[in-house]
Amino acid sequence: MIAGRTAIVHYWLLRMRGGEKVVEALCRLLPDADLFTLFYDPRGVSPTIRARRVKTSFLNPLRCCYRSLLPLMPIALEQLDLRGYDLIVSSESGPAKGVLVPSGARHVCYVHSPMRYLWELYPEYAGRAPRWKRALMAPASHYLRIWDTQAAARVDEFVANSENVRARIRRAWGRESRVIHPPVPVETFYARPLEDWYLVVSELVDYKRIDVAVRAFSRSGRRLRIAGHGPEYHRLRAMASPNIEFCGHVPDAELRELYARCRAFLMPGEEDFGMTMVEALASGKPVIALARGGAAEIVEPDCGVLYEEGEGLDGAITRFETRSFSAERCQASAQRYSEKVFAERMRSVLLQHP
Hints:
Elements: E1 6-13, H1 18-29, E2 34-40, H2 47-50, E3 54-56, H3 73-79, E4 87-92, E5 106-111, H4 122-128, H5 131-152, E6 157-160, H6 163-173, E7 178-179, E8 198-201, H7 210-220, E9 224-227, H8 233-239, E10 244-248, H9 252-261, E11 264-267, H10 275-282, E12 287-290, H11 295-298, E13 304-307, H12 312-320, H13 327-334, H14 339-350
Parallel strand pairs: 1-2, 1-4, 2-3, 4-5, 5-6, 6-7, 8-9, 8-11, 9-10, 11-12, 12-13
Helix pairs in contact: 10-13
């Protein structure tokens, strides 16, 4: 039993993605915890999150344009009132760890990734921006990196979601961390006889590199289904051939059916961890992934194919189709990432005393 008042801090609660699923698991692990966030839209989150007392920042009325408010987020985080709490668990990918914690309280930060648009992806974001915008981005990003590093010093213990993110924490903030993989409800996924099409499940944003899959399947004529939506949707549709089906946002039940029936799951970009790969394995389906980031930790040799840039996705699929894979072996591999394992390991961290 974790004693004292507990708060969970998450950057924003606007829709359910990987970070919000971790928050759900933290809510179950810490049943009396209050939630703090910069932006909150109860329509976009699960009943588990809606059932909590959620306290928001003064920026919340502007949540429709939250991405443009990054320079104001440090100030908003530092205005969140955490007096009276004994344990603070922050969930970091956007800024969350920068809250001001009471004297004597313990602050544990679970890191999905240091903010990629401030650190390793900054040159890419800046390179795509117009010249006038780059002129504004440079000083603002410099200020935010200084604040981000100083905020990291306020954290008592870091937990990384993967070895990949553990290395990023060390590079960005000069801090060590322990690795606890994010939870996946593996027992809720199931296998069906495979059908002759491949699957991508992703937000359609540039760095996910879904265009790599669209181009490869447009060339080969193999069937591909893409579940997800985002700003790249129209561009990807315009370049896709008729054998590629865009499913848009699909409900959880329908998504489980897609996982269960696909031939294999594709991950053409680098993920911090990659919960969708675990969901595919839990559905008894192998994974074809770029050999970077979380894929290098998740995809075991008998559960899929990893490829380097030089080989490309086309070559990896050709190699995949010469092999056979066991659904039972894939499902057994996914058990490493169950919520039970996550809860046991996180509990051992949270029960420690400062």
